[in-house]
Amino acid sequence: MIIKEMNKKIPPFDDAIIGKEFDSKSILLKSMNSRLTYAFIIFLFLGAAFVDLALSGKLPIFLGLLFTFMALGFYFFRNYKHFNEQWTYTRVAAESIKSEWYKYTVGGGDYPCNKDVGEDYYKDLFEKNIQDKISEYRKNIINIDGSPIDFELTIDANTVSYRALSFAERLGIYKDQRIKDQLSWYEKKSIEMSKKETKYRWGFIAIVIIGLFFGATQLMDLASFSRINESDFFSIAIALAFALESTNSLFQHERLSIAYKKSAVDLTESLNKINDSNNDVKTDENVFSEFIEDVENRISNEHKSWSLTTNSKNLPNF
Fold it and tell me: Where are the domains of the chain?
């Protein structure tokens, strides 16, 4: 009896999501790309600083040239391996599969819960749509000489079990475990990116001001600051400031903050619709199905924009 009752229970919603291997691979690719980007910027800054000190006779020129060549090595290796593009395509595949899974499980978009049509039709359609997304992913990865993930679609009993739930139950699951969760994530990431952008921007301003102080001191040749007058703090400070600005630009913190904020506003509108007692979303399953399609399109507009700009070599590495 205990075993039978346990088998009837539906597992937590997220436990049945397919394509988790794409999430894991994208995290690895993002980490590699971020590390190489930071290494390139840090070594380029050190190379410039060491060269400047070498010109003043304080360090051998070889040290500056070595760090500069190492920075270029990190840059060319990152671009040669296409870590940025590989991460982008893998992340888009993960989010696209997840979006399709949500629509299928709760009866949205192309997969309304219609007993007259039959579940076999919707299951076959779901499999076809997923395979189309995988084929596009494989083509993109192979075009940049990457190694695509070997993925086999398996529609387990847990996934299908959600489609057997009542309309009210599916609506509640989609509202709480898709819209609210995604909205919370957008809000958190928007604040996080905004804080990073502010930190880098004020860091740039502060270091430039410090550099200008050293430069003015050297220009006026103040005797009481003889050590400063003989130093290269001005050029080093300016190099560090532009290293911070380059980092902020490469990781596009400001653009991401705006994008996440817009996505949060869009999902808030969707949440208001589903909470509105006068809205047909809560009473008409056909309207609910169209509503899910609209929500998933809003979410996909955010992650699909990554692939549209991937050739710029300047994508975010969050």
Answer: 17-312
- CA distances from residue 293 to 19, 312, 316 in whole angstroms, order as listed: 20, 30, 27
Contacts of 273 (CB under 8 A, 6+ apart): 279, 281, 291
> What is the C-alpha separation between 258 and 190, in angstroms, rounded?
7
R_g of the chain, CA atoms, integer Å: 26
Q: What pTM was estimated for this model as a whole? A: 0.79
Of 115, 183, 170, the residue nearest 291 (C-alpha): 170
Q: What is the DSSP string of 184-227?
A: HHHHHHHHHHHHHHHHHHHHHHHHHHHHHHHHHHHHHT-GGGHH
Q: What is the pLDDT of residues 100-116, one digit of tens each?
A: 999 999 999 999 988 88
Contacts 24+ apart (CB under 8 A), 297-304: 298/263, 298/266, 298/267, 298/270, 299/95, 299/99, 299/182, 299/263, 299/267, 300/95, 300/96, 300/99, 301/263, 302/259, 302/260, 302/263, 303/91, 303/92, 303/95, 303/96, 304/92, 304/96
Q: What is the mean pLDDT of the chain?
A: 83
The rounded distance, in Å, linking the Cα atoms of 54 and 63 is: 8
CA distance 148 to 141: 6
- 148's torsion region: left (phi>0), alpha (psi -120 to 50) or beta? beta
